[in-house]
Amino acid sequence: MRVELPANLTISIQERIPAITWIIDGEATTWVDDEGFTFPIRGEATIPLKVMANGDPPKPLGYVDPASEPAEKAETPILPTPSVDSQFVASVLKLRGYIPTGTALLYDPENGLGWTDAQGWQVYLGTDISQIDVKLAEYQQIVTALLERNLQPSLISVEYIHAPYYRLE
User: Fold this and answer.
1) How crowded is residue 166: how many other Cβ atoms within 10 Å of its Cβ?
2) Which domain holds residue 86?
3) Is residue 100 in some structural domain?
């Protein structure tokens, strides 16, 4: 927004494009754009990526909820800030190429990001997604080794790169 004298007011509006539908306990609660901004679901949109969660997405480091700011600071204009960690959003979007088509991602504040593999087991990458490429490569190695041995896991976790594990049924 820009104000000029005499009596000119210019307002610039940019529509946010949803990239992720965040679904908590079966109800679509919010959309998240690729920068980490959240906004309510309004109207219809085809969002290719859904995250089935049992909690809110991780906030950026140092995030302060504007609604919790003291009243004396309210006179200072508040610039919009993303409410979801942008690195987390980038990792979620990156996973589109790795999960089976039509499969929803899972998110649990304890176990982090995951999904149900097409062969039936749960996969979890953890909450620290800074080394997601390494975790995905490690996951592929574990799957290859298990399938070579004709083992069917119920869960594969690469939450901790140096201590991955799997559970058999």
Assistant:
1) 18
2) 32-38+55-168
3) yes
Whether residue 2 lies inside any domain: the answer is no
Which residue has 């896991």 as its token pair? Answer: 153
CA distance 156 to 48: 25
Rounded alpha-carbon distances, angstroms, from residue 82 to 6, 33, 65, 128, 143: 34, 9, 10, 18, 36
Among 131, 133, 126, 118, CA closest to 157: 126
| Type of residue at 64 | V
* Count of C-beta atoms within a 10 Å radius of residue 32: 26
Residue 164 lies in a domain: yes
| DSSP reduced 3-state for 148 | helix
pTM of the full structure: 0.76
Tokens describing residue 79: 């610039």
The answer as to whether 15 is a domain residue is no
Domain count, the chain: 1
Q: Could you tell me which of 88, 136, 135 has the C-alpha nearest to residue 109?
A: 88
pLDDT digits (tens, 9 = 90+) for 109-138: 888 999 998 888 999 999 887 788 899 999
Question: pLDDT of 72-99, one tens digit each?
Answer: 555 555 567 888 988 889 888 888 877 8
User: What is the CATH classification number for the domain harbouring 143?
Assistant: 3.40.50
Q: How many CB atoms lie within 10 A of CB 34?
A: 15
